[in-house]
Structure formats: structure tokens, C-alpha cells
From TrEMBL:
Cofactor binding annotation: Binds 2 Zn(2+) ions per subunit. One is catalytic and the other provides a structural contribution.
Coiled coil: none
The protein's name: Fructose-1,6-bisphosphate aldolase
Binding positions for Zn(2+) 2 per the UniProt entry: 104, 141
Reported function: Catalyzes the aldol condensation of dihydroxyacetone phosphate (DHAP or glycerone-phosphate) with glyceraldehyde 3-phosphate (G3P) to form fructose 1,6-bisphosphate (FBP) in gluconeogenesis and the reverse reaction in glycolysis.
Keyword flag Lyase: yes
Alphabetical keyword list: Glycolysis, Lyase, Metal-binding, Zinc
Pathway note: Carbohydrate degradation; glycolysis; D-glyceraldehyde 3-phosphate and glycerone phosphate from D-glucose: step 4/4
């Protein structure tokens, strides 16, 4: 059944678990996410980015999600729009039937330029008014995503601030978060706590302090009824990097957010955990490996099937680790 993000995350908060929110761009991802959810009995958040809408088209994405709901009637599914850059973008998604939207007013309509606090409050508040009138949930964002190690926002072509960020910019302020929630009425808030989008988050192996855990606690204490969201939560699996590079890829050494640290974040109030990059890496590794071993093969279903299996295993791992398994 289609369900709002508010309903899903309220349950997650009551029971103390987190839900991975996977980006969806194609049929293979959609199947992987749903098969994993069915296997682990987990609720689902699927999200469509601007890039996904450009690649697959909004109608294809919408109908793919509706098809998933029809085929897996026992699984609650939230159809979420990722990183809306204006109230107008969110309005179009609401009109299409999305049950949840993100208004990312922390960046301008170019998805790159940090905005003023007042601008963020204004566009987010307007989106909440519109969305709540339609029973749709809203996620806002406060702060600039950026790796505390590199000071970079990541994602050359996607959503992310340009240039080097200061330590302060990369940590959401708890008092400002409280004021933001009071003024906008958002259901969920994406916070900056040391993560960044994409595969290049950290240049060194993690030592257990990737996330600003203390900051998560402080923010959660100030806004206990607002569900915290962590973007840039891919773990960048080293086994998939090795497979990609073994079969002709050239991805430099890089690290993501360890699953154990995400689990810590969930313990202190994080409820929605955004993951895109991990499924991209698994997909690419699976295709490279399959085609290297099956050089005469040309039926796309053969190698795309490998991507479904690879992505499904990652989804299963995350549903289990974050505790959403068993909660559908
Ligand atoms: O927000 C970032 C997500 O990974 C989506 O990226 O716009 O390239 O689909 P994308
Ligand atoms: P990753 O790039 O770490 O997968 O993050 C995805 C994300 O935050 C989508 O909004
Ligand atoms: Na931001
Ligand atoms: Zn994001």
C-alpha cells in the first residue's frame, strides 16, 4: 500500500528503527528493493531524484512504483521525491501522487549555491502548507552536507555545494534546527553531520568517528518529534570496488559511512537513511564481472539480472542492519 513518510517514520520512531531510502532510476533497482523488502518483511521508501526524472521520466518512475505496490501488496511503500529545488518542483510531484516530498531549501534552484536561512524557511514553509493540505509529508534540509575529513560536498553533477566548506557549515546547529521546525512544520529534517553525496566521501579507512554522533544527539534532544534524515549514507562497499577494478574499472581508493556508525545514528534519532551510490557500485560491479566472464553474451536480461541480485543483497543487509526488517 502507498503510505506517507510521516506514517512510516512515526512507526520507526516508536519502535526505534531506521528505514533505508533507496533512490530508484530503473526497473532493476525497483525489483531489487522490493524483493529485498519482501524477503525481510520491511517497509520501503523509494525516492526519485531530479536525475532519475531526467533519465527515466516522471511517469515511468511513478508507474514503476505503483506496479511495485500492486505486486507486493503486503509492503507499505512511501513514494518520495528526493531533493526538490523549489516549491514548484514539489507541487508537480504532489500533483502526480507522490506521498512525500523533500524541499531542499539549503541550496538554491541550481542545487549548488548555499542559500540564506530566511530563504530556506520561506520555501520550506510554503511547501509544507501545500503538501499537508494534500496529506503529503515533507522533508526539509538544514546545513550543508560535507565530509568532515575533506570539506567537500561530493557529487560533481548532482546536488551539493561547490568549493570547500567550513567545519561550522557542515554541522547543523541544534538551536537553528528547533527554530526551523517551529517555523516550517516539516515532518522530517535532513541534517548535516559529516556525510556527503557520492562515492568520494573519505580518503582514509574509517576509524569510528565518521559521523558527528554527539551532534545527532543534541539535535534529536531539541526536536524529538521531527524525524532526522541522513543523506549521503552509502557505505561504499570495498568488495564491490575491488570487483569493479578487477574487471577493468579504475575507481580510486575511497571510503563511505560504515554501517555500524549508521546504526549508532539510528540509536540517537536518525530514521531515514538515504542510499544511492551503493546500489550504483553493486550494479556496475555485477555487469563488469558478468560480461568479463561471458564474453559472447549479448542479452541484456542476463547481465541486468546480475545487477538485481547484487543490489538486492545490499538492500537486505541494510533492512536488517537498520532494524526495519520485520516491520512491514
Ligand atoms: O541526491 C543525490 C542522489 O544520489 C541522486 O543523484 O541526481 O544523480 O540521481 P542523481
Ligand atoms: P549516497 O550518494 O551516499 O548514496 O547518498 C544518496 C542520497 O543522499 C540521496 O539523496
Ligand atoms: Na544542504
Ligand atoms: Zn541526498
Amino acid at each position: 500500500a502507498l503510505i506517507s513518510m510521516r506514517q512510516l517514520l512515526d512507526h520507526a520512531a516508536e519502535q526505534g528503527y531506521g528505514i533505508p531510502a533507496f533512490n530508484v532510476n530503473n526497473l532493476e533497482q525497483m525489483r531489487a528493493i522490493m524483493e529485498a523488502a519482501a524477503k525481510t518483511d520491511s517497509p520501503v521508501i523509494v525516492q526519485a531524484s531530479a536525475g532519475a526524472r531526467k533519465y527515466a521520466g516522471s511517469n515511468f518512475l511513478r508507474h514503476m512504483i505503483l506496479a511495485a505496490i500492486e505486486e507486493f501488496p503486503q509492503i507499505p511503500v512511501c513514494m518520495h521525491q528526493d531533493h526538490g529545488t523549489s516549491p514548484a518542483v514539489c507541487q508537480r510531484s504532489i500533483a502526480m501522487g507522490f506521498s512525500s516530498v523533500m524541499m531542499d531549501g539549503s541550496l538554491g534552484t541550481d542545487g549548488k549555491t548555499p542559500t540564506s536561512y530566511e530563504y530556506n524557511v520561506d520555501v520550506t514553509r510554503r511547501t509544507v502548507e501545500m503538501a499537508h493540505a494534500c496529506g503529503v509529508s515533507v522533508e526539509g534540509e538544514l546545513g550543508c552536507l560535507g565530509s568532515l575529513e575533506t570539506g567537500m560536498a561530493g557529487e560533481e553533477d548532482g546536488i551539493g555545494a561547490e568549493g570547500i566548506l567550513s567545519h561550522d557549515q557542515m554541522l547543523t546547529d541544534p538551536e537553528e534546527a528547533a527554530d526551523f521546525v517551529r517555523k516550517t512544520g516539516v515532518d522530517a529534517l535532513a541534517i548535516a553531520i559529516g556525510t556527503s553525496h557520492g562515492a568520494y566521501k573519505f580518503t582514509r579507512p574509517p576509524t569510528g568517528d565518521t559521523l558527528a554522533i554527539q551532534r545527532i544527539k543534541e539535535i534529536h534532544a531539541r526536536i524529538p518529534d521531527t524525524h532526522l534524515v541522513m543523506h549521503g549514507s552509502s557505505s561504499v562497499p570495498q568488495d564491490w570496488l575491488a570487483i569493479i577494478n578487477e574487471y577493468g574499472g579504475e575507481i580510486p581508493e575511497t571510503y563511505g559511512v560504515p554501517v555500524e556508525e549508521i546504526v549508532q545514528g539510528i540509536k540517537y534519532g536518525v530514521r531515514k537513511v538515504n542510499i544511492d551510490t551503493d546500489l550504483r557500485l553493486a550494479s556496475t560491479g555485477a555487469i563488469r564481472r558478468f560480461l568479463a566472464h561471458n564474453t559472447a553474451e549479448f542479452d541484456p536480461r542476463k547481465y541486468l539480472k546480475e545487477t538485481i541480485n547484487a543490489m538486492r543483497d545490499i538492500c537486505i543487509d541494510r533492512y536488517e542492519a537498520f532494524g526495519s526488517a520485520g516491520n512491514a
